[in-house]
Amino acid sequence: METDVLVVGAGPVGLALACALLQHGVSVRVVDRAPGPATTSRANFVHARGSEVLDRLDALDGLPEESVRAMTITTYAGDRPMMRIRFGDPGLRTAAAPMVISQARVEARLRDRLAELGVRPEWNSALVAADQDEHGVDAVLADGRTVRAGRLVGCDGTSSTVRKLAGIGFPGVKVSERFLLVDARLDTTLDRSGTSGWVHPEGMFGAMPMPGGQWRLLAYDPAFGEDKPGEERIVERMRQILPERTGLRDVRLLDASWASLFSVHRRLADTYRRGRVLLAGDAAHAHAPFGGQGMLTGLGDAENLAWKLALVVHGRAADRLLDTYEAERRPLATQVLRGSTAATKVNIAAGPVGRFLRDQVLIRLFGIAWLQRWVTYTTSQLWVSYRRGPLGGRGRRPRPGDRIPDTACERPDGTRTRLHAELRGRWAVVGDESALAAARSRLGDRVVLLRPADGPLPAMLVRPDGHLACQGGAAELTRWLDGALA
Q1: Alpha carbon separation from 330 to 21, 106, 335, 398 (Å, rounded)
Q2: What is the pLDDT of residue 355?
Q3: Residue 259 contacts by C-beta under 8 Å, 6 or more apart in sequence?
Q4: What region, left, alpha or beta, does residue 461 occupy, with left being phi > 0 and alpha being psi -120 to 50 degrees?
């Protein structure tokens, strides 16, 4: 076997998965058909849950300092502000704040972390064929090389070659006509402390501040009928509709660094696994961009899959543990798809009834403080729980499958630390030293012992992705591991 896992796709999900696997001591290779790293921004928001995943990968350093703290959205009708939503702390204790930062910078930091762990992406390495047997997968690359891997994971986007070669369906529907997207510098006095959006009969328009003094401009423009416009034509069209939609006559679009045109589709893979082939990120689910849930959900996929793959690769869990990956992550993707689709339909409402509901009812509702807190809570994905999945359970809170907040803890020598900082490729036994030996007998030496630093916590075993495995001492821990890993 040349490698335990071959990851196809060097975007944020593939890079995160590779980093996580290496943290767990699993050998990995990453291949990508592209000639090199992408330089365009693409996704530009990382919610708190995504920042937590990057933190546990030890790949967060420097990103918060580069990011823009634009945590408000103000909606206008012409020059009249109609609604302001403030994003903030949803009260779920995280040391990792949400960030406005380009996907290119997130990928660059993940590549740096991957290099620290001893691996670099292999560019110009398109996958063209894959055949699996009971022991592994033979992956054929475009240059004729064959890679023998124990598992193959497709993190190669919505047009995933891995998914197609595995024969996995990707059904879905078209949600909207076309949007224009341009990243550019503006000559404007617009407030850079938050995003501005305008409702308009011809389609919504948004302007979001980006690092480096740039702005992300987004416009729904179903009347723009050109089939394959170049970037210059898209920028020209955006320059035309910017004053029309916003009413701002003193704003000028200067040089653009990226322009794109897209329609919104909603898609979900029929299954996340076929034998030794698995899918993660956009290869498994395609989202509307509203709410910034796409990259966020993909990062969660990567972290969830990594520790399960590691246990199976190391012979510490049966192969069926991998079935819990889809059981835990696919229901979340379904929920996210519903939410992002609803947000898209609200933003592109064309008829008089739809516009009335959006402009006169929903906008007023979202001015209510508790509803704004709900928006922050929902989009953060810090609420995600697997308690209803095969590894979840009932009982007193927190319940098996629930996220455990980033709690202040102490190591056995008394030094202070954070729970999530100790989870980097490891499990944590909190508050019960007698359970440590039981955990290590089943999980190996990648288990740390911690004590709560500020007040009591129940004795518990915490998974590497920050979710509760079980509460209790050695007996309860052993019972859970017997059921989960058998």
Answers
A1: 21, 24, 9, 22
A2: 57
A3: 180, 181, 182, 183, 231, 232, 234, 235, 238
A4: beta
- 177 C-beta neighbours (distance < 10 Å), count: 16
First to last CA, the chain: 25
Continuous segment of H or E residues that includes residue 231: helix 231-246
Half-sphere exposure of 176 (CA within 13 A, CB side): 29
Average predicted confidence (pLDDT) for the chain: 89
pLDDT higher at 257 or 361: 257
Evaluate whether 118 touches 307 at the Cβ level (below 8 Å): no
In sequence order, what DSSP letters do the residues of 341-402 get, joined into one string? HHHHHHHT--SHHHHHIIIIIIHHHTTSHHHHHHHHHHHH-TT---TTSTT---SSSSPTTP
- Rounded to an integer, the average pLDDT of 223-227 is 76
| Rounded Cα distance, 45 and 29, in Å | 27
Residue whose pair of structure tokens reads 């590691």 in the numeric block: 310
| DSSP letter for each residue of 405-441 | P--EEE-TTS-EEEHHHHTTT-EEEES-THHHHHHHH
Specify whether the CB–CB gap between 429 and 448 falls below 8 A: yes
Q: What does the pLDDT look like over 243-264, one tens digit per residue? A: 999 988 889 999 999 999 888 7
Phi, psi of 2 (to 5 degrees): -75, -35
